[in-house]
Design brief:
- By secondary structure, the protein is mainly alpha-helical.
- It contains seven helices and no strands.
- The protein has helices at about 10-20, 30-50, 55-65, 70-80, 80-90, 95-105, 110-115.
- α4 packs across α5 (about 80-90).
- The mean pLDDT is about 95.
């Protein structure tokens, strides 16, 4: 097993190919250890070269609602009513501090995500 740091796109592609080969190796085998190491190297390269931005607050709410199989009516009390929920989720109105507190508790979304700025539609 010869493992080198991933420095270029070519190194990255080769590491992915090798990871694909050893991915399903039996636990405890040398191939399994190689897969673990390659996964760490690939992850680090991807974090540096292919970062994924966090969703804006409204998208984060919608994603979490979908994950929890919730509809707008299920969360309306956190926003202060059905109409207000619709206004927020359709970007007609901004979240308030009180809403952010309620959503943080209800949907377990970090307040840091919810306080991020986002555009409303006019």
């Amino acid at each position: 097993m010869i493992i080198k740091p991933i420095k270029t796109e070519s190194d990255y592609r080769m590491a992915l190919e090798k990871l694909n080969e050893v991915f399903d190796a039996p636990a405890g085998s040398p191939e399994s250890d190689e897969a673990d190491i390659l996964a760490v190297l690939v992850d680090e390269f991807e974090r540096k070269h292919y970062p994924i931005d966090a969703p804006d607050p409204i998208e984060a709410i919608k994603i979490r609602m979908k994950e929890m199989h919730m509809k707008q009516i299920d969360i309306a009390d956190a926003f202060g009513g059905r109409n207000r929920t619709s206004e927020i989720l359709n970007r007609k109105r901004k979240l308030t501090v009180g809403m952010i507190r309620n959503i943080t508790k209800r949907l377990n979304i970090s307040p840091g995500v919810l306080i991020s700025d986002y555009k409303i539609s006019q």
